[in-house]
Amino acid sequence: MKQRLAIASALLNDPEILILDEPTNGLDPQGIHQIRQIIKDIANDGTTILLASHLLDEVEKVCSHVVVLRKGVKLYSGRVDEMISSHGFFELKSNKHQELINILEEDNRFGNLKVEDELITAFLTEPMDASDFNNLMFNKNITLSHLVKRKESLEEQFLQLTDNE
Known about the structure:
With 165 residues, the chain is α+β, with helices and mostly antiparallel strands. It is built from 7 helices and 8 strands, in the order αβαβαββαβαββαβα.
């Protein structure tokens, strides 16, 4: 309730720019959803909103642009969708673990590989559907016991950008 009142009072003078610092801090999920919708509505009405937040999931859902700062130094400035526009990655498991790794290392559609125990994370350098990848592996006699395609979130991109500091 306090956040909604604070936003309403800030809007009384019809500002061009509205600065919000952690507007969803301490709210329950319903309150977070309401504040998120209010922010989107205000932005759609033409008000520029500067949102300071450490909740990157919230930033990803609400903002069109993002600036990443570390100790006063700008590390990134641009559209949120461009920051998270990677082609994603596959999480994979197979009983032919080493063969799968070898195939992925030889295929230029994959960049970095991360191997943790039996789980292989293969980062894509170009778009690829999970079904196409599954067919490709099947044709190479690799049966996958685990196949999940994911995209990196804003938080994961932030951690890479800041070297996990």
